[in-house]
Amino acid sequence: MKDLVNLLIEKKKTISTMESCTGGGVSNAITNIEGASEILKYSAVTYSNEYKIKMGVSSEVIDKYSVYSEECSIEMSKNISSFAGSDFGVGITGKLNRVDVNNPYGEDNVVFISIYDRNNDRFYNDKVEATLGSRKENKELVINRIIDMMKDILK
Fold first, then answer.
1. The pTM is what?
2. b/e string for 36-46 if b means 16 or more Cβ within 10 A?
3. How far apart are the first and last CA of the chain?
4. What is the separation of C-alpha 37 from the centre of its chain, rounded to a whole number of angstroms?
5. Are residues 124 and 114 in contact, defined by beta-carbon separation less than 8 angstroms?
6. Share above pLDDT 90 across residues of the chain, in percent, rounded to a whole number
7. Which of the residues 27, 52, 55, 148 has an alpha carbon 20 to 30 A from that of 46?
8. SS3 (DSSP) at 38
9. Over the chain, what is the mean pLDDT?
């Protein structure tokens, strides 16, 4: 994460996150690095559908594709970038080692990541198979994938 934060600082780019299953893990990892205040504009943990919708995710997208979908992560990434005015928005949603009785649809143990590049109006999407033993290990897996994606985007 240190390399990514420094790269964002060097390129004078900012980032915001809307996280669900990672519970703020990405923003926590960013803020563990000195200089993070130069690049992190805003972070929201939207664990519930209600707060995803309040932050701009379309209820129609959730109803049609499920809260656990690439389409939902895309809306999360774009809306958080727009809300915060950041160069990049990161949206993360998925299931980590549990069934969600409030959202029975969507793949189990899959996390959807979307990074929105506001300046180029472009999305970078991926999904991670979250099949490691613990929630903590799966969160780290997702965070590391986001770091790799961001470094590739910023090259």
1. 0.94
2. beebbbbbbbb
3. 15
4. 18
5. yes
6. 85
7. 148
8. helix
9. 93
Parse the chain into domains and list their residue ranges.
2-154
Other CB atoms within 10 Å distance of the CB of residue 132: 15
2-154 has which fold?
Maf protein (3.90.950)
pLDDT of 60-108, one tens digit each? 999 999 999 999 999 999 999 999 999 999 999 998 766 666 665 667 7
Residue whose C-alpha is closest to residue 41's, from 64, 18, 7: 18
Strand partners, 93: 112
Integer angstrom CA distances of residue 32 from 36, 60, 137: 8, 36, 18
CB within 8 A of 108, min separation 6: which ones?
Answer: 95, 99
Sheet strand arrangement including 110-117: 40-45, 15-19, 88-94, 110-117, 122-129
